[in-house]
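Why run this: before we spend reagent on co-expression, it is cheaper to look at a predicted model of the complex and decide which construct boundaries make sense. The entries below are exactly what would go into the expression plan.
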Amino acid sequence: MAVDKEELQEFQKEVKAWFDANAPKDPGFLLPQSFMEVGTDKQFHFLRDWQREVYEAGYLGMAWPEDYGGGGKPQPFQDIVNREMAKRSLPFMVNIIGLSWAGPLILNMGTEAQKRAYIKNILSAEDIWCQGFSEPDHGSDLANAQLRAKKTGDHYLLNGSKIWTTLAHVAKYMILLARTDSQTNTKYEGLSFFLAPMDAPGIEIAPIRKLTGEYGFNQVFFADSPLPADCLMGEEGEGWMVAVKTLQFERGAEGGQAGGTSMVRTSVGEVVALARTVKRGGRPAIEDAHIRDQLVRFLMEEKGMRLNGARAKIKPLASERPGSLLMSVKLLESEFQRRLGAFALSLQGMNAAYYMGDPEAADRGRWQRGLFNAFSATIGGGTSEIQKNIIGERVLGLPKS
Amino acid sequence: MAVDKEELQEFQKEVKAWFDANAPKDPGFLLPQSFMEVGTDKQFHFLRDWQREVYEAGYLGMAWPEDYGGGGKPQPFQDIVNREMAKRSLPFMVNIIGLSWAGPLILNMGTEAQKRAYIKNILSAEDIWCQGFSEPDHGSDLANAQLRAKKTGDHYLLNGSKIWTTLAHVAKYMILLARTDSQTNTKYEGLSFFLAPMDAPGIEIAPIRKLTGEYGFNQVFFADSPLPADCLMGEEGEGWMVAVKTLQFERGAEGGQAGGTSMVRTSVGEVVALARTVKRGGRPAIEDAHIRDQLVRFLMEEKGMRLNGARAKIKPLASERPGSLLMSVKLLESEFQRRLGAFALSLQGMNAAYYMGDPEAADRGRWQRGLFNAFSATIGGGTSEIQKNIIGERVLGLPKS
Amino acid sequence: MSLVGESSAWKIAFSEEQAQLLEVAAAFCREKSPIEKVRALMTEEKGFDKSLWDEIASLGWLGVAAPESYGGSGLSLAEAIVLAEPMGRRLFASPFFTTTLAAQMLIRAGTETQKKRWLPKICEGTIATLALHEPHGDWDLTNITARAEEREGGLRLVGEKRFVLDAAAAEMILVSVLHKDAPACVIVEKAALPKAALSRETVIDETKRSYRLKLDGITADCQSLLSAEKMTDALHHVHLAAILLLSAEMCGGLSGALDLTVEYLNTRRQFDRFIGSYQALKHPTVDMLTGWDMARSHLYYAASLFGKMAAADDAEAAVRMAKASASDAFAFGSDRCIQFHGGMGFTYECDAQLYRRRALWGEYMHGDSAWHRARLADILLK
Amino acid sequence: MSLVGESSAWKIAFSEEQAQLLEVAAAFCREKSPIEKVRALMTEEKGFDKSLWDEIASLGWLGVAAPESYGGSGLSLAEAIVLAEPMGRRLFASPFFTTTLAAQMLIRAGTETQKKRWLPKICEGTIATLALHEPHGDWDLTNITARAEEREGGLRLVGEKRFVLDAAAAEMILVSVLHKDAPACVIVEKAALPKAALSRETVIDETKRSYRLKLDGITADCQSLLSAEKMTDALHHVHLAAILLLSAEMCGGLSGALDLTVEYLNTRRQFDRFIGSYQALKHPTVDMLTGWDMARSHLYYAASLFGKMAAADDAEAAVRMAKASASDAFAFGSDRCIQFHGGMGFTYECDAQLYRRRALWGEYMHGDSAWHRARLADILLK
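The model came back. Tokens follow.
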């Protein structure tokens, strides 16, 4: 579909104006910075309302088919919206698992019935989705899933447990990887992929308290929980391929996401602003030569990551060691955020020892919380250590560890 | 042997006075900083003369038996000499392999004849010793030695090659690990240990040019080289035990060394002095806040390592995680020197780009040379990576990698 | 080759008494402060176990660094270090840190009457604390804005103090103020605190009990002022003593984090191997170990100098090095402890977060490592 | 989750011409500058291959950033970058860096006569260089102590210059001096150099040919002065251009070091495994890769800004970031390249040292990363 450049520019103006007018005000409490941090009802309702508002304004799923509730427009329109949203540090889209992982997957390989049943409510945040991949005993080793799904008549009976299940406590559906056959040659065989309703009998959700003291993750237990057979996505036994496809969407290696972000990244600009306001030893932190040096390092790194993204789009500059730029995004960004968080705290000197809930904690304690929550990205979705293995092996061709 | 404290204090005064009077003057050329860097004849002769002078003054092998040329005094006397020498950054003892590894080994498990034959000339630097442990194909894997020693009559015939052989080009003897039996269950069996004369037929020495452009290491080739059977140290086939014992002496885990140091360590004090004299951007480097911060880090680290040594002697403070303090000495010191060297160069700004031989290179280019030579310690004697394995496994009890 | 420092002119003094105390304290903390107990106390308002506190008092630990004439053992702060280190390792919760520091302040700058009144009590278990920090957050303890104004023959305090540890349990608080434009210190007894003068702070280390103290409305008589002429020296002494105690607590904490990490690396399996066999985890764990070793060597060196000549540059440098070394090493170690626990590390239930929080606390009390290094540069690179 | 920067407002401009040039240059350098050739040239006094230089000239590479009216291609320095990067990767030795920079100086501040005389020649292969550095070693090119004094209707030069690259092969040298107390630049032709004015320097990168230049005794006529009013701008431009070219050379060099490392890790075995399977080597090698990626992204961003608006803060910041990023990444990468080669890495024979030396050269010419970060702080944290 050809896109008119002028139309896009016109659209961008409209989008700017809408977000200028409709950006949510400070709710009076600390909002989560990512979809993995939604711990309280008031946070959840605030975020769900916000997603619905954006959808109803026509700014979500713009490139998804109209038939299922999308906008039916070319992708560049959604890209403009995404850019404007990211620029403004607006709250993220709470149903991001639906918007970016489950939704694209269903559109890509779901049945007509599945598309009709799920897509619109993903966009409106009516149905929240969660993901059941990790299990307690092998967090990094997804293909080793042991949750059993046993076919009985027109149902599968589920037994086992999933863990680190973000949003499970508010989700209506789960994308679920389960083992339908345990007598296979390799662990990659015998897995199946389901779109599972969370209200099935025998499903129990135990919230997991995070190291911050808050909630947001869950462990989900299945005890003889029956799933209708038509919840199956793809063929029985070929769940690993579906999971890999899902991971492609999750990691942004494949397009088709509805739009919106999953997190509000901390920008170095915010940390610079903090350094201007806090004092160390009686002088503004930003006047300290050592702190200035570190701020510049962070600014360079932040810019470098953005420029990596820009370079990835230029074939002649991305053809050598292919895959490197995309595969390192998660590693670089998550480790960067972790170090930036620790640095931001250090600017606050003695007052860094306050915590969320204390009136003296700078910015309601977001920096302390951010320091701890940063581990969700360096650990979740494959630890940084595993990322390095993957990059070393796939990009550089080094032997397996 | 009881030692009189006053006698020791008196002795210390005498030692100070002697070194004050006899410390060698600047020879007018760049001296090596360690025994692995002796690349030219003039360097070697200068250092050999210096060792002989120290020995003749009675300050080397003070605690070795008088019968073989030692001083027959208690160890504290030698300790005092060592301390005074180290304090003054005097040139190191060129025959350190004899003084610290081969000599203690011979005294510990050699025959009376071997003691009489070798010890005195080790002390006087008349006979230089080298070590034949590493081989080309398995530098880190000592026990995997493949150099063959085949018993024929009252001789062993040697075939194979040793590498990284410091001082081989001036050595009269080599402590040598060779394989007398290749049909064993484990690589640790079938090895034998020799005190090999370097003038045996069929031995060829090829100097290895270092990354600095200088020499100091060699590869030594053995082609049907006959060794008299009485060169054997310990029993045939039990060479690995002798090698392990040698490594104990080499790593300082066991005492009995004749004294003197193997290298002149770069102290942070020297780098501080450099920072006072060189300028960056028109101002003395030492005024830069960032450089001051780094200098303090280095001072802390240097002090920490010395204090580790002091703490290792206090049992109640060294009994937890035993071995840790001693086993980490080489790792910490070598990595420290590598980083310190790079930092010292950075102080010099543009002029860091000069090299040895240029009249503008600060301190005759010792900093540039030091940066490169530092790798001999992070690589040689087991790379830093291997050191970490060893410490992780032996001290922390972590599983093998 | 031997790289070991034969040349070391530095010695660490460590006495028989210290060795014995260290052994006793290590066993005591291990037994009396298992991690379940630590967690249980975290949820209680008081935050420590009074019966254990009494036990400590009866063991004489509160008086180790107090003169015998006031009921102490006449040893030095170097002996308090061997107690603080095992306490740190087991995250043992008690007002030991504040009470010991308050005693140090009294010893340095109390009048004879004040010392006679308070020191013997403290040695027997009376809890005391200090109010030294202010809203401006400057680590320099001589940067004081709170005031003691003379009114009707007495003193009226004005201002606010922060991070007053264990204040709710303390019988007395030593409050730093400006008096006649000079640094001063006032003894405020529990009874003199108006209602609502204290409010609990929410701090990052949940094992700690910290309060803000509103001074407005508090009065004291002039006899409650510590000796004015000794104040600058005493504040400096207390600053260094606090740093030394925190270094000990952090060395201990790092040791605990290391234990926890090693245990997990030796039990958890992924991809059919113990995760401790992966160098990506093993090598940084070795870095934790060497960081701990180094920090601990600095600590005991600083302790042995501190006893002898606390005012000298050498001792000050050693103490600041101990703090900078311990806080960097503990920050690294506790951070990796979380990371290497993977998903588990992200939970409140995993003890890794307890150590990380303790490390942050120790880092930001009484100067972080960059701040101490700047001070060290002034001393060492003159 | 997708973390990729959809939000990126930054774009990298990269033209078809650049893409083609990059491909050609990569192939050229790979074929014409194998490592044996690099080593052979190192031992020769001249240090480069004149026939390859002529080839480069005939390919038009010396004029890519020169206006068409003077015989160039009318492109920008962004095109010179795609040549410099592959040259760096293969350690290709030639006076390309100096000649390109000299042309930039002439374009910026040459008089019409000077440009007409020299630029077409340079485009055809005449070697030119700059003498900008002085014994004080300050990276600020406006810190000039050499002088041009007016004597008998002409100029007499006084002072000394350092790190004059390829001076022995150059037909002309652009010498920065103070003239009437202001920065100026004089064209000194080869014929005007007294014997012994040039002496070769021993520098850390043995592929480079660097000279000290004694100015005393050199005379020139007044027409050899470049335009005085354009000098400050021109020196700034040349400084940034030099930085950009060095960044390209270093990105290329790092890529070469990475190749070398990966190849060794995939062939060398120890303890019965390829050493590349050890995470202790694999993970830092991944850090080399990500450092290279980042530096390269900075480089091409800086190149695309540089062409357009070299005077602006944005372009200056981008160029300085490229240099700081490349030199840190190359320092790390070439250092690890030696270490990971084990004993081999310690030899002169191993190519790792060539990259390490090149990295040091690039780091210390025209400002190291700490120096650039201090400049960046002034721009970015105003």
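Chain A has three domains: 9-19+29-128, 130-250, 268-395. Strands of chain A lie at 129-132, 148-152, 155-163, 173-179, 191-197, 203-208, 217-228, 232-233, 279-280, 283-284. Bring this page to Monday's planning discussion.
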